[in-house]
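Sample pair:
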Amino acid sequence: MSSLKCDTCTLRPVSIPLVSLVIQGGYESARIVFDQIKRKIPVVVLRGTGGLADLIAFAVNEIDERSPHVWNAHFVDTFLKPELNIRIVNVFPVFNKNPLTRNIFRDRIIESVRI
């Protein structure tokens, strides 16, 4: 039986790939996702799991279908924002009584998609 001896051990910087995974999620998750995207950490969204994940997937799909590869501010303001507001209230009824918080949530979703 051989024995492995290490008189000196050296720790070298190791690059560890990171990825964020969104399954469901809510208001605070939107802030985390936005921060991850700003830091250029890839975010994987699992559509069909509910909550924030489905809202992000909806926004991405609508933007890709209506104006692929181009940010269309008119489309975002006239269609996407009102539709996201409806969907947010359907998923999180508490936001029905707090439009300011709902709009912050909505805008984080939209900005995450835009970046």
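The two ends are 56 Å apart (CA to CA).
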